[in-house]
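Re-run with default settings, no changes from the original entry. Doing this only to confirm the output is reproducible before filing.
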Amino acid sequence: MAKVKLTNMIDRANVEAGVLRPDQVRTLEIQALVDTGATNLVLPADVVAALGVRELGRRKVRYADGRVEEVPWVGNLMIEILGREMQGEALVIAAGQTPLIGQIPLENLDLIVDPKSREVQVNPASPDMPLMDLLRAS
């Protein structure tokens, strides 16, 4: 499990535009299961409702038991784990279910899972900020 801070990015932009006060920005800190077999960030509907982020569309997901289902997809989130931030999106599951942190946020934030302790850690090769790999095409 890892602590995740989630912020509504539209609220943050509205603060900068002078439409909202800083104390009106919807932010939550939750515990989420780090699931290296999952691709995306997955949030329960009650967390999404509390953040007030809009549905951008729908995506098909395949569960571990093989079921395929269409679920909402939301964006405009600031995702912070271990002091590292990224703007991102999430798939939405039923209220009350366990949130999941998948490979995309782990890669974007350059976080690793220690196989012995099973804890999420900042990549020791890039302790000050995420290091992104880019392929230079000529």
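The longest strand covers residues 68-81. The two ends are 42 Å apart (CA to CA).
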